[in-house]
Amino acid sequence: MYRTIGFVLLITLACFSTTMARWDRTIIGPGGSQMTTLTPGQGRNDGMQRIYAACFDGHIYEFSDSSGQWYRRDLGLAGALMTYVNLGKGRSDSLLRVYGSSNDYSIWEYSYSNPGDYWFRERVGEGGLYMNSVCVGNGRSDTIQHVYGGCFDGIVYEFTRQGNAWIQTSFPGAPRICDVAAGFGRGDSVMRVYSAGYYGDLVESTYESLGWTSRTIWSGSGLQSVAVGKGRLMDTLSDQRDHVYIGAMNGAVYELVYETGGWITYTLGIGGGGMYSVVVGPGRGDFKSRVYAGGADGKIYEFSHQGGGWIADTVGSANGHIDGVAVGRMEVDGVYATSYDGRVYGFRHSPSGVESKEPPASSVQTLRLTALPNPFKTRSLINLSLDLEEDVDLAIYALDGRRIRSLLQDRFSPGARRVIWDGRDDRGISVGPGLYFLRLRAHGGSLTNRLLKLK
Questions:
Q1: For residues 237 and 320, what is the distance between their CA atoms, to the nearest angstrom?
Q2: CATH no. for residue 79?
Q3: Which of 147, 305, 392, 448 lies 20 to 30 Å from 241 when distance is taken between CA atoms?
Q4: pTM over 0.85
Q5: Which residue has the higher pLDDT, 83 or 399?
C-alpha cells in the first residue's frame, strides 16, 4: 500500500530558483567516447580521492587531481559498453575496489596493485541480458558485503566472494531494470535492495529466513535511477532517516518515505528532460545532505529540504545529455557529472556567492595561475599571466564563502605578474591555518586554486 502526496512546491524547470546557489564548472577531462556514470573514492586505497568514470567504449577511466591539474588513466577494457561504475568493499575485506557493469552481460572488478602500479581486472559474473547497473552493500543486513547487478531481464544478480570464487544468486527485481541500490530505505535497521525499471516500477527486495521477497512499492512513469540516503538532512536534524529517491523519464525526481502502514510519495521537482541519475549527499562543502539529479537536457539539479518543503535549483550544465551524477570530497565537496559529449565535469559551490562562468574553450589557455610554496606557513608567491589585456580580479576566499583578501583589482597588460599573500585578511589580521581558495577572474571566466596554510 502506498499513498501519493502532490507536493505544493511542484517545481517546473521554468520556476527553478536563480538565487539559491552559484557554481563554478570545471572540465575534468575526456573519456574515449560518450560517458555514462561515475563515482568518486579511494580506489587505490592510498588515502587519495579520485574519480572513476564508465564509458561507451567499454573502458573505465580514472581521473586524479594533482595541484589543480587532472590526469586520466585507463583501467582497462571490458567486453562491451560500460554502463555503470561503483566503488566498494565487495570482498568484505579492508580494500576498496572498482566495479563496472557492462553490456556483455557481466560485472567486472578492478583492483589496484602497489607495488607494480597496475590495475588487475576480473570478471565477477554475468546475468541474462544487458547489465545496466552495479552497487555494493550488505543487502541481506548481514556482515558481508555483496555485489549487486541490475539486469535488463528484470533480475537482480547477487555476487558473494567466498574463498577464491564468486558465488552467484538472483532474485526478481523491476521489469527492465535500469538501476539498483542497497540501503535502509524504510529508515529502519534493515538493509534492502531497490531496483528501478524502464516500465515504471520500483521494487523493494528484502532477504528473510526463507530467501528473498520482492514487492512493487511504486509504479508510474518509466524510471532511470534510484538512490537511498538522508536527503532531508540539511537544515534540521529532525529527520535523520534514509529515504528512497528515484529519477523518472518524465523529468521528475520523487522521494518515497516509509511511514507506518505504507509509502508516501513526494515530488521534489521536474526538469527539462528525463532524470537519468539521482544521488544523495553533501555537494556544497557544508556537510549538509541534498539530492542531486542529472537530466537528458544536459543540466544538473539540486533539491534542498528546507522548512518542511523542497527547494529546487540548477547546479550547472554540460554540453550534452547527463547520464551520471555523483557527489564526493576531493579536498572539498563537489558535484560531478558525466555527459554524452564525452567529458567528465566538476562543479564547486562558488565561495563568492556570485555566479562565475567557465571561459570558452578558445580562451582557457589565456589564464594561468600558480602559487608557491603550497602548502605554506607565512607567505605564498602567486604567479599569474594572461595573453590578452584584461580587467583582473584576484582574491582569497575562505571555505564558508567569505572574501577575506583582495590581492589585485586592475587592468592587466599581457604578460606575467607576481603577487604575495602574507596569510592576512584585508584588515591585516593573520588568518588561521586551513584550506583557502585563490581565485582569478578575467576574460569572462575564472581559475581557482586551493591554498593550504599550515600552523
A1: 37
A2: 2.130.10.10
A3: 147
A4: no
A5: 83
Identify the bridge partners of residue 135 per DSSP, sorted by sequence position: 148
**Pairing between β-strand 380-386 and β-strand 367-372 as defined by DSSP bridges:** antiparallel
CB-CB contact of 203 with 172 (8 Å): yes
Q: Looking at the structure, do residues 334 and 197 belong to the same domain, yes or no?
A: yes
Q: Which residue has the higher pLDDT, 440 or 75?
A: 75
Domains: count for the chain: 2
Count Cβ atoms within 10 A of the Cβ of residue 344 and give its class: 0-12 exposed, 13-18 middle, 19 or more buried. Answer: buried
Identity of the amino acid at 164 = N
Q: Are 351 and 398 in contact (CB under 8 A)?
A: yes
The answer as to whether 137 is a domain residue is yes
Average pLDDT over residues 183-190: 94
Residue pair 155/102 in contact by the 8 Å Cβ criterion: no
Name the DSSP letter for residue 355: -
Residues 6+ apart with CB under 8 A from 245: 226, 227, 228, 229, 231, 253, 254, 255, 256, 268, 278, 280, 291
Cα–Cα nearest to 223, from 161, 181, 192? 181
Does 298 lie in the same domain as 381? no
Distance from C-alpha of 295 to C-alpha of 282, rounded to nearest angstrom? 19
Cell of 415: 604578460
* pLDDT bucket at 237, cuts 50 / 70 / 90: low
Q: How far is CA 26 from CA 30, 44, 298, 377, 394, in A?
A: 12, 24, 15, 28, 18
| Burial of residue 239 (number of CB atoms within 10 Å: 0-12, 13-18, 19+) | middle
Cβ distance 431 to 423 under 8 Å? yes
Contact 203, 192 (CB under 8 A): no
327 and 377, same domain (yes or no): no
Confidence category of residue 1, pLDDT binned at 50, 70, 90: very low
User: How would you class 227 by CB atoms within 10 Å of its CB: exposed for 0-12, middle for 13-18, buried for 19 or more?
Assistant: buried
Q: pLDDT digits over 350-408, tens only?
A: 765 444 444 443 333 346 777 888 888 899 999 887 776 777 888 998 866 788 999 98
Which CATH number is 402's domain given? 2.60.40.1930
- Rounded to whole angstroms, the Cα distance separating 211 from 209 reads 6
| Residues 234-262, mean pLDDT to the nearest whole number | 88
What lies within 8 Å, CB to CB, of 441 at 6+ separation is 356, 392, 393, 394
